[in-house]
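Why this split exists: single-chain examples teach little about how molecules sit against one another. For that reason, every record in the complexes split bundles all components of an assembly together and asks for one structure covering all of them. Below is a record exactly as it appears in the raw files.
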Amino acid sequence: MGKAWWAIVPVLVILFGLLSYGLTSNPKHIPSPLIGKQFPIIEGKDLNGNSVTLGVIDGKPTVVNVWASWCAACRTEHNVLIRGARRYGNNISLVAINYKDELANAKRWLNQLGDPYQWSFHDLSGRAGLELGVYGVPETFFVNKQGIIVEKISAPLTDAQFAAGVELMNK
Amino acid sequence: MKKYKKTILVFLLTLFISSSVFSAEVAEDPIERKMLDIAEKLRCTVCQNQPVAESRSELATDMKDLITEKLKQGRSEQEIIQYFVDRYGDYVLLEPPQSGNGALLWIMPPMLLLLAVLAAVLMMKSRREKLAFTPPPTLSDADKERIRLAREDDSGKK
């Protein structure tokens, strides 16, 4: 073995490093390019047919949660949202996008589990979801007072994530 | 009647064969073609390594509808792809971009190949040097002088 052979070691180390990073990181986790961008203003109807506009609500930092009654993970997440609304409700707005859902199913779901949202934007076509880069429910956007998306969680929210998101919004 | 049997059969056969002439021509919708071209370049974000064009997932279907709609509005391919990149990131592109972080992916394979070739050349060179005969050492002037003296000395004894 000549000295030249040893030159290959750092190359291999780097390659295996990249490979192991790639294999251990979660392929479902896609960093959102929307963080740091303005939350788009999207107009539509809520579950009761009232006109609503997604964006900053009541001039407060706004949490926008994307859910659907057919989404099992949303069910486990729901209590986190109810607790979050109770804890931070005075200082933030909490609204939702009801994603590709039947009106009746969505309403029944909220009746059974409780409704922590000011309203749920009814996105039957999924068009608002595409506008927001949604690829699966649940997803949650944290939007500060200026309308900038400061955090996006593409998984069932935890209490800790909710608290961290609120902190980011108030920064 | 038996006489005409063959004629009737041939007549029916020609009718059958020519039937395709009467069928409506299947026209290819240029917007659909263009839509599929674009959808071929986009990754279906819920199914990892499948282009939107090939996926039957709900999200991919929605994306295809949106592409068609935007094409009808007269948007260019670039604008539509950018729309998705702005919302889903570079990840949505099946072919990584040739700038920024993506450039690394494109540059690395040829770089590694170059490195491998370089290593091989160096190794072969060092091996050839090891195998080559060492040339006979040339005598320095001092050596030659010593030899001359030695010979003279020798011849003097005789």
